[in-house]
Amino acid sequence: MQHRFQDEVRGALIKYALVPVFVLAVVGSVLMLLSWKHYVTDANHEQREMVTDVMHGIFSDYWRRTERAVETLSAEADLREWQVNPGKRAEIYQYLYHEVNIAHDGTQFYLVDTQGNILLGSQETLPMAMQPFHQEWGILHRMSEGKGEPVVEFVSRGDTGRHDLLIGQAVVYRGQLEGWFFFLIPGGYLENNIVSGNTDFILADSFGNAQIVTGAAGAVRMGKVTEPFVSAENGLVQVRNREYYVTSESVPSVESVQGYRVYAISPVTDLLLRYALGAGILLGIVLIMVPIILVSARRESLARSQAVNDLVDAFAAVKEGRLNNQLEVHAGSDLAIIEEEYNRMTESLQKLIRQNEEETRASVISEVRQLESQFNPHFLFNTLENIKFMVKMDSEAAMKMIHALSALLRYSLHEETRRVKLAKDIEYLHSYMEIQQYRFGERLHYSEFIDEAVRNCLIPKLLFQPVLENAIKYGEDDDGRIEVRLSVTVMEEDLLVIVEDKGLGMSKTVFDHLQQLLREGENNTVHKGVYNVHRRIQLMFGMDYGVKLGQPPAGGTRVEMRLPRQEGDHVKTLYR
């Protein structure tokens, strides 16, 4: 019997020791494959698609801007009117500077007559690529022959090897060429938009000319994308003992702009070497661990046999119902700790029962404090951004916003008490609404009715702010007006708080989701404001109280909060 038990122990030790080793080997291999997929293939594809979308967006955006600008400029028979007429000049400069400053990308614009004179321009001289000026110069000729459409072309910036993107169109009045208008987007801006820390990119035209290059120096020679990068659509490329993962994708056509292709090049030499090293180490570990496990299993099975027999006898006594017997383990066994822990366990049960009630109460207090500590970061960030803006526009208003925010923050962070008088909370609520009033201006209309009989009632601190924030968020009507009303009245022995707006209201999906959160009592989503108020009220006063949502037939959203009417020291809560 003892030898069979030893064999079973030894077999189990070998089984459960070897299995993790082989599982480790399999998991390591799978992790390397997943790592390759995540950090190389998926990242390369995702970043390539992003770059393709960026370039397509730039082509589309400036194509439309060029068309709009030329349409405006073509309204004059003599383009010099835009230069000599102060009113027109101011009007067109305002429009053009708005166009180039939208993206803050350093874009330049030029209106040039047929003699090469700059009639309008963000710079006083023509770009280096257009000097000396000639009507038959490449892109000008293609603009003239462009059939009334913009022309897109990359132009070289002298001997720097950098390229800028030029998008322009001929200005024609009643069939007569009057000049050219074009945008010049700096190549540096394009590079910054597609740069990535782990992947290099090349934007090439239909002839294989590399127009935009971020890294990937080995893939470009004499201004062209080299083999084998050109022919590698999706896979590994080896060049000069270096490994690269390469994919490519055509930029979707924008009108006549086509033939551009994005190459995404990920250097993977170091990563493959690490994979090879990791695989070697993993294999070495397996080869070393197997014999060690076999020897250790035999030795441990012999050493533990007697101790296990003692444990079997002890638990057999427990099975027979002799619960008062002390568990005894073979003297000198490492498993003797089971004796101590088993006997301690029975003594701990009663103590745990006594502690259970206290721990439950502590858990409730902890959750309430956690809910109270949440302060909407979006409100804080938006307020700081508005203060930053108002400092330039109205410094006095900015100072008022800062004072209001400071008072609100001090109040929210003060932890001396969990409950305050309603009148005091309303006072700090006014600071919050003052900030919101500065944010939304005349669009926000706030009103309130506070029954005089409830002003000394005790309520949870910052009870109203999350609900009002939600009302402001969803309370905008068709005209952009936000009308929010707060009322606090007595209903029998309770307080009834109502926050309602007259806006378009939440969508059915959002409203149903919030209703579900309030019913189920668990929130793992981003909808925290109304739910947290509901949860705080129920934790503090019981399940008979909380928040109800409604959508009146007239429109908008109605939030009702019910909580007990309490004054002075006569406070009814689930915790103290």
Annotate the secondary structure layout.
Layout: H1 2-73, H2 81-84, H3 86-101, E1 108-113, E2 118-121, H4 138-144, E3 151-156, E4 163-173, E5 176-185, H5 187-194, E6 200-204, E7 210-214, E8 220-221, E9 224-225, E10 234-239, E11 242-250, E12 261-267, H6 269-319, H7 337-373, H8 377-393, H9 395-413, E13 419-421, H10 422-440, E14 444-450, E15 458-460, H11 465-474, E16 482-491, E17 494-501, H12 508-520, H13 529-541, E18 546-550, E19 558-564
Parallel strand pairs: 14-16
Antiparallel strand pairs: 1-2, 1-5, 3-4, 4-5, 6-7, 6-12, 8-9, 10-11, 11-12, 13-15, 16-17, 17-19, 18-19
Describe the structure.
The chain has 576 residues and is α+β, with helices and mostly antiparallel strands. Among the domains are: 326-370, no CATH class; 374-564, Heat Shock Protein 90, CATH 3.30.565. 50% of the residues lie in helices and 20% in strands. The chain has 13 helices and 19 strands. The strands form 5 sheets. A 5-stranded antiparallel sheet has the order 2-1-5-4-3. Strands 7-6-12-11-10 form a 5-stranded antiparallel sheet. The chain has a 5-stranded mixed sheet with strand order 14-16-17-19-18. Mean pLDDT is 78; it is low at 352-375.
Quick take:
The chain is of the alpha+beta class and 576 residues long.
Which percent range describes the beta-strand content?
A: 15-25%
Helical amount: 40-55%
Instruction: From the alpha carbons, calculate the radius of gyration and give it in angstroms.
Output: 37 Å
Please, what is the CATH homologous superfamily of the domain at 374-564? Histidine kinase-like ATPase, C-terminal domain
Shape type: flat
Distance between the termini: 62 Å
Structural class: alpha+beta
CATH architecture of the domain at 374-564: 2-Layer Sandwich
